[in-house]
Design brief:
About 45% of the residues lie in helices and about 15% in strands. With about 290 residues, the chain is of the alpha/beta class. The chain has one domain: Alpha-Beta Barrel (TIM Barrel). An eight-stranded parallel beta barrel has the order 1-2-3-4-5-6-7-8, surrounded by five helices. α10 crosses α11.
């Protein structure tokens, strides 16, 4: 059963997210991870996009290989950042020619060292515009988008705090423009997801909202992702990470987080793998053993 068919039927899905590496050693590691992933029978594999489109060719090639050579349902990330409409059209034509079925349509983050997003003069300023562009010109694609349970870093309330309410309005616009599902930014407190889901449904967002989960395996990762994504870290996770074996503690925490999400009726789990299959594979095996997936 295809990923979107399962979502439509209410059957929980599992998806992995990879990124194109920058070194030959990274590619060797990723190929080993992909070989293991092919045996895990995941529903979808997502491949990200470097800042400013720096890995766009690698993304297209890798997604095409996953889809056509390994028989893994694949989703290509596509961003507004750094691209004109003509460049986006060419990329979408290539992805269509390679039978890639799903696009993750994103605005894109400012390049490293910059704080403000600057759209291409002949491109798009918002993910919702890109979604509309895709749906109007390439209706065969199914389209995913991003959701931010704790608020996008650039969305601020009057007091300077993040404002998830504004993000829900943008999420509804993405749905109205044709998005088929959303994947959330990583979070570590399931209460955050439940609150966001409740408010999104009240605002008319009816598409599936897949929770994004990352198994942490180092204390440095915790601090890094707090800084980058603004995730709140529950005290039990901080204490577990400080106890010594961060990888084991991160796995246990992620497993309980996934169990809780699925028991609460989440439509699936999207795992940010950091190009590693060991932790993600163990999580998947445990969830399947418990008949949650």
């Amino acid at each position: 059963m295809l990923f979107l068919e399962k979502l439509g039927r209410g059957s929980p899905t599992v998806s992995f997210e990879f990124f194109p590496p920058k070194t030959p050693e990274g590619w060797a590691k990723l190929y080993a991870t992909i070989a293991e992933t092919a045996r895990l029978n995941v529903d979808l594999v997502s491949v990200t996009y470097g800042a400013g489109g720096s890995t766009r060719e690698s993304t297209v090639d890798l997604v095409a290989s996953l889809q056509n050579n390994l028989g893994i349902n694949a989703m290509a990330h596509l961003t507004c950042l750094g691209h004109s409409r003509d460049e986006l059209s060419r990329l979408l034509d290539r992805l269509a020619d390679k039978n890639v079925p799903v696009i993750m349509a994103l605005r894109g983050d400012p390049p490293q060292g910059e704080t403000a997003f600057r759209p291409h003069a002949c491109g798009f300023a918002h993910a919702s515009d890109l979604i509309c562009f895709i749906k109007n010109g390439w209706p065969q694609f199914r389209v995913g988008c991003a959701a931010y349970p704790e608020g996008h870093p650039e969305t601020r309330a009057a007091d300077g705090a993040r404002d998830p309410g504004r993000d829900i309005g943008f999420l509804k616009l993405k749905q109205d423009q044709g998005a088929d599902f959303a994947v959330t930014q990583m979070f570590f407190d399931n209460a955050v997801y439940r609150s966001f889901l409740s408010r999104a449904r009240a605002a008319g967002v009816s598409m599936p909202l897949l929770p994004g989960v990352m198994p942490l395996n180092s204390a440095r990762q915790i601090e890094r992702f707090v800084a980058l994504a603004g995730c709140s870290i529950p005290e039990p996770l901080r204490q577990a990470a400080a106890s010594g074996d961060v990888a084991a503690a991160g796995f246990r925490f992620a497993l309980e987080q996934c169990r809780g999400l699925l028991e609460d009726g989440a439509p699936g789990i999207h795992l940010y793998t950091l190009n590693q299959s060991d932790l993600s594979g163990k999580l998947l095996a445990s969830l399947r053993e418990g008949r949650l997936l």
